[in-house]
Records
---
Amino acid sequence: MAERVFVFGAGYVGLVTGACLATSGHTVTVLDVDERKLESLRKGECPFFEPGLSEVITKALAAGTLSFSLLGDIEAVENIAVIAVGTPSTATGSADMTYVRAVADFLEEKAAPGTVVVMKSTVPPGTGAKLSARLAAAGLGYASNPEFLREGSAVTDWFETDRVVIGGDDASVAKISRLYADMDSPILACDVTSAEMIKYASNAFLATKISFINEIAVLCDFVGASVDDVSKGIGMDTRIGASFLKPGIGYGGSCFPKDTRALDFLATLNGYDFHLLRSVIDVNSRQRLLPVRALKARFGSLEGHRVALLGLTFKPETDDTREAPAIEIAELLQAEGAEVVGFNPIPVTIPGLDTIATTIEEAVSGADAIVLSTEWAQIVESNWPALVASMTGERIVFDGRNALDPKVIRAAGGSYIGVGRPEGVGANNHAG
Ligand SMILES: NC(=O)c1ccc[n+]([C@@H]2O[C@H](COP(=O)([O-])OP(=O)(O)OC[C@H]3O[C@@H](n4cnc5c(N)ncnc54)[C@H](O)[C@@H]3O)[C@@H](O)[C@H]2O)c1
């Protein structure tokens, strides 16, 4: 059965949610406060880079099931209202609930009684219990429906999600389940607070896997083991699983850093010291120092050295640079006196980095070091012998994602440094 849906927030989550629900036949209006964003959306242009999303928007617009509206222009909201606005970090690490509160206030005033408010934004466990009581007084239902999509593969993730989590009373869960009726994914129904906790616990666990393998990578460097082989070997154990075991300069983005901080804040607020999570966060911060430490160890001072920083987004296939490791690395390298030239396969800017080349060749030519920060295919699959040949001096290649073949870099006269990949160890790594 087609449902009438209003989605608040035309960001990565709101837009994917709205467009995908509309292609499934639901009648969706996506609302935002940013008129410029809405103008381009009405023309079928996606305001950010997300593979496949433009096509889904165009299809839904053509079918007449998707529309866009400025928040201030909407007079009535009914049936289902999905909140998908940002919940960034505050200075304390807690989740900033300003945008969520603004939408909740709006709905309290404008939504027709019987409307079910669905929280898709990531909000601290306990939020829904309080908010639902307030909304109930206005005759509104409430459900928590956390989102697990990943930028870069958001559309596929939407349609092929491992699970849909819906927290709420029986009536709300039944209603929201209908949004996913055409999908094969299992639905986990639970109470609101547990649904909220599932989202934070999932992100914290994935971040833990990343920091764990990063710790193992450090030990691999000490003892002369290949973290690539170790990661593969432990990932083959089905109890562990192979995903999120890739070592490197750490996680970034708009979710893991802020959600781990918010969960840690929640623990502290409740008088509990979440040691393990604190260590996960600390290890991640330390990983970002690795390229700077490695270059300082080689050059002594970075003064007068030119470094090409490749991959400025927090992961490939997105234009999102929120909390991308490249931001901090650029800042640290420049503070040490290096001249940094950035490059990203799709045009983006990052704070504090003024020089961004339009081609990888331009960024690398004349550099005496490279830091590979994000493993875009366009970067990894470049002509590395030619790139190394265009460098000068020691031609150091710091591979922050263990994505390059050390043999190729060394054969071209470069000096390769990976994360947990000591020279001469591992299948990918022998000199010949
Ligand atoms: N980005 C992800 O990969 C991802 C994945 C899962 C969950 N989440 C969570 O989903 C939420 C949204 O994240 P995002 O990355 O889509 O955020 P975003 O910053 O990309 O988008 C938020 C949108 O909300 C709009 N907005 C702000 N106030 C508004 C209001 N009062 N009414 C209507 N629109 C308003 C903004 O203009 C913006 O377009 C966050 O809580 C995030 O943690 C994000």
Note: Residues 8-14, 31-34, 37, 71, 84-87, 99, 102-103, 121-122, 147, 149, 151, 254-255 surround nicotinamide-adenine-dinucleotide (CB under 6 Å).
---
Amino acid sequence: MRWTEKKPDFTPESVDAGFHSLGFLECLNVLTKFRSRPVIVLQKTIMKDIIEHLKKRNVEMGGLLLGRVFQDVDCPSDFFVTVEKVIQSSTFSSTNVSLEMAADVWNAAREQGAAGQYVIGWYHSHPNLGAFFSGTDRHTQRSFFNQRHSVGLVVDPIRNERKFFMGPESDELPVEHTIQL
Ligand SMILES: [Zn+2]
């Protein structure tokens, strides 16, 4: 499918609600960091699922990330995101004017997403090119994943590199702001 007018609908939840699903140490970890900039919490098998997908072929591949956004009720600029599910796309092509994924990707996201889960971002591979956001990737992020909580993940499965970017301006997130459960 071509991404043109799809706008992900989402409702942020309270930080307290987010802490219910985290252990004590993870809560502490999020609390000490998310005041300065956002934190991404990856549920257990997420990176494994993504890398297994992206290692299958030596071409650019990608998919969607499903999850939730938790924001501080009193200070809505402070928030963290949980990535809870991966929707693999069988086809993937991104150019300066479009992002194309398999036609069933949105349906899969809708069907496989649990209540409260939304499309919160995307991931794609740079086989043996290194993990960085190209001009095209920044354009894709700005066009289609332009909420402040939108996650862009790029992985080089050959060099074993990965980087997370967030928001419409593709701000790189420091490694310590990603927490793996
Ligand atoms: Zn790219």
Note: Helices lie at 15-20, 24-33, 46-54, 105-112, 135-144.
